[in-house]
């Protein structure tokens, strides 16, 4: 073979990409935060002992962690509200209100005794 021959064999040729899928838009931080808000909502109810802990497979009550989850969800909601439409704003406000009401109920001494 002549050294001046620059023809490449099929194994030497660069692979062509055939990705024809449309480019994806980056996930909005507000969409991600909205999803995380719902995750903290679920976690708060689990830590209040009102739902089964999905990892432990049993009811686990920890009011300190429940309070943290409620506070984090409330903070996220405050950040998100200006970026939501009217229906989503109402849904988020209702979610936070219900979290706070349930936390207050579960924090009462009678709720502590019932769960023990």
Explain what you see.
With 116 residues, the protein is an all-alpha fold. The protein is 57% helix and 0% strand. The chain is built from four helices and no strands. It has helices at 29-47, 63-80, 86-107, 109-115. Helix 2 (63-80) packs antiparallel against helix 3. The protein is flat and about 60 Å long.
Helix and strand layout, with pairings?
Layout: H1 29-47, H2 63-80, H3 86-107, H4 109-115
Helix pairs in contact: 1-2, 2-3
Keywords:
116 residues; mainly alpha; 57% helix; 0% strand
Short description:
The chain is built from 4 helices and no strands.
Main sheet summary = none
- What is the end-to-end distance? 86 Å
Helix content: 55-70%
Give the SSE order as H and E letters.
HHHH
Give the helix tally.
4
Question: What average pLDDT do the residues reach?
Answer: 86
The SS-based structural class is: mainly alpha
> Regions with pLDDT < 50 over 5+ consecutive residues?
none
What's the shape?
flat
How many E strands?
Answer: 0
Radius of gyration: 26 Å
- As a percent range, the share of strand residues is under 5%
